[in-house]
């Protein structure tokens, strides 16, 4: 069986370095907000080309804290897409704001900028574009729209570690950016972890306070806060993996190119192409997606669906009653095939052959 993803294989390749990093933390005896977190924050900020990174407990924490630090609150609206994880919308709800879902572009599968501009109203306070599957959203246009209307932008970079537009990495365009280091991410930890990136000193300082009970340097509670910290062990392991991120992203691009050349004459829709994409997922579109998936599973090929329903179709958010036909169509067609280098290298030819056969066979 070829799995669709298996983060354990990536950790196994760096096992000795990871164990050494873990031992370093235990030898030091500091487990919460110590040297490893500080160094990872600095190293990841340098990598992204931003002034500040603040490590937090998860990608959802990153979104929530970024919005809180920007002053987003009850009564505000935050525009985002529905073709994303529910966590994007839940982060908006956690600060008391209302998520407003807009359509995606059919080709890029990221936020449609015309739909974005049309959705901006008097209560709009922020925009959260999602760099879906590692493909960069149209950040120059989004930032221009945000500037004209005087609203904030928080990039959802949970799937786009290292993605770029030209020479500039995503996460450096918005007023803030949220990263998740969930194990399956291009840069993933063996547990929950996240970070906020920003060029604002004031914003970074607020988030550092809010992630740690609202404490100042004297551990006096000076404002709102909670426990949303990145721990030392996760930071130490992320420091081991970060120097290899660009190499692994380059390999993902090569694997994506191999898929494209092998599937060019098939009745299969391919993900958008970009030199700045990092292919967190290689999500094709096929008719009768669930039947194709079952046929592939029977032939030993693991796949996944990201996402089976748009967030606007989840029971909790269905009250929004928004019409997003492109999102609805894509959620019935998208199918993620193996792209993680430790899994897909040397396997793409066989995967494509079986995929082509499964699409040809179609539903029973």
Briefly say what this structure is.
With 364 residues, this protein is of the alpha/beta class. The protein contains 14 helices and eleven strands.
Structural features:
14 helices, alpha/beta, 11 strands, two-stranded antiparallel ribbon, 2 domains, Aspartate Aminotransferase, domain 2, seven-stranded mixed beta sheet, Aspartate Aminotransferase, domain 1
Describe the structure.
The protein has 364 residues and is an alpha/beta fold. It folds into two domains: 7-243, 3-Layer(aba) Sandwich (Aspartate Aminotransferase, domain 2); 244-361, Aspartate Aminotransferase, domain 1 (Alpha-Beta Complex). It is 40% helix and 13% strand. The chain has 14 helices and eleven strands. The protein has helices spanning 7-13, 15-28, 35-48, 59-69, 86-94, 113-119, 139-149, 201-210, 232-241, 245-263, 289-298, 325-331, 341-344, 348-361, and strands at 52-56, 77-81, 98-102, 124-128, 152-156, 164-165, 168-169, 176-180, 194-198, 282-285, 334-337. A seven-stranded mixed beta sheet has the order 1-9-8-5-4-2-3, with helices on both faces. A two-stranded antiparallel ribbon has the order 6-7. The protein has a two-stranded antiparallel ribbon with strand order 10-11. Strand 6 (164-165) and strand 7 (168-169) form a beta hairpin. Helix 4 runs parallel beside helix 5 and helix 4 packs across helix 8 (201-210). The relative contact order is 0.17. The mean pLDDT is 96.
């Amino acid at each position: 069986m070829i799995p669709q993803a298996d983060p354990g294989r990536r950790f196994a390749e760096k096992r000795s370095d990871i164990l050494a990093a873990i031992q370093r933390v235990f030898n030091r005896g500091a487990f919460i907000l110590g040297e490893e977190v500080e160094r990872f924050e600095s190293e990841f900020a340098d990598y992204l080309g931003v002034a500040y990174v603040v490590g937090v407990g998860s990608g959802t924490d990153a979104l929530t804290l970024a919005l809180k630090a920007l002053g987003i609150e009850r009564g505000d609206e935050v525009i985002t897409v529905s073709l994303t994880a529910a966590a994007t919308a839940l982060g908006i709800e956690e600060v008391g704001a209302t998520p407003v879902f807009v359509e995606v572009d059919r080709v890029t599968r990221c936020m449609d900028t015309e739909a974005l501009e049309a959705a901006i109203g008097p209560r709009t306070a922020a925009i959260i574009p999602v760099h879906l599957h590692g493909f960069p959203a149209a950040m120059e246009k989004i930032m221009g729209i945000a500037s004209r209307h005087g609203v904030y932008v928080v990039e959802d970079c949970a799937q786009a570690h290292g993605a770029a537009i030209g020479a500039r990495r995503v996460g450096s365009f918005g007023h803030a950016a949220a990263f998740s280091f969930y194990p399956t991410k291009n840069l993933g930890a063996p547990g929950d972890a996240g970070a906020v990136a920003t060029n604002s000193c004031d914003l970074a300082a607020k988030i550092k306070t809010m992630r740690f009970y609202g404490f100042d340097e004297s551990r006096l509670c000076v404002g709102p806060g909670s426990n949303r910290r990145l721990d030392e062990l996760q930071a130490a392991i992320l420091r081991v993996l970060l120097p290899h991120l660009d190499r692994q992203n380059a390999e993902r691009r090569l694997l994506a190119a191999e898929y494209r050349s092998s599937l060019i004459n098939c009745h299969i829709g391919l993900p958008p192409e970009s030199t700045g994409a990092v292919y967190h997922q290689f999500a094709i579109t096929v008719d009768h997606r669930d039947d194709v998936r079952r046929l592939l599973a029977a032939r030993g090929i693991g796949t996944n669906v990201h996402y089976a329903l748009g967030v606007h179709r989840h029971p909790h958010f269905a009250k929004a009653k928004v019409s997003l036909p492109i999102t609805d169509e894509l959620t019935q067609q998208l199918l993620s095939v193996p792209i993680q280098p430790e899994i897909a290298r040397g396997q793409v030819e066989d995967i494509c052959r079986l995929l082509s056969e499964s699409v040809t066979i179609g539903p029973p």
